[in-house]
Write a structure and sequence with these properties.
Length: 268
Amino acid sequence: MSLIHLVVLALIQGITEFLPISSSAHLILVPEVLGEQDQGAFIDVMAHAGSLVAVMVYFWRDIASVITGLLAMATGKITEGGRLALLVAASLPPVIIFAGALVVFDLVDYLRTPEIIAAATLIFALPLWLADKYAPATKAAETMTFKHAALIGLAQMFALIPGASRSGVTMTAGRALGLTRQDCARFSMLMAIPVIVAFTLVSLLELAGGEAGGADLQAGLIVGGLSFAAAWAAIAVLMRLVERTGFLPFVIYRLALGGGLIAWMALS
């Protein structure tokens, strides 16, 4: 795998991870466009790990609040941070169950195709636009109910389909339930932390079992570091612009990407 390929992967992952345009879809399409071999799930996960560190650094105050909240729960107190931790936990079961089903039935690789990416990119674009345009924006993340968190968690299940976009489907659900754009984006990113941690641990276990070689580890570390820098910058920009721009630019991008993929497949 060339250094250029690794740099492109890292930048694309870092920039797209928290934008509602599907980082996984872009990571899968990069080797298709560059004419290189698919980088595989391990490199993908290392790229996501770099993004994970970036979101934890950016939202360090929320992370610290959650940690102190969890400690307070041991004494029977429910703080704002503890409640936020419980809301994130309430969103997790659907994606864990769906991910387990994909692994058990060996369906992961079947989803990594341009046809599925194109379809998911187009199908999930319209709900994002509708939710952002017509839903009220009255709720903060801390005032959500556990039912709301569970519903956003159900939406996160679709994130395992490349092209759907984890941030896209969770922000769609959050906006549909009345979250403000900034809180919608913030909660979506906080939800990503345990999910990416789980996938990273699985990948590291595979590495320990000899399923990924030393070259893969070196490449993964390069991708992870560059992905961190790009993701941190992307989060900073997104959180400043989301209130002013809304999600329409991302919807337009998704429609263009999906249409372009269909045209590319028809001509190839």
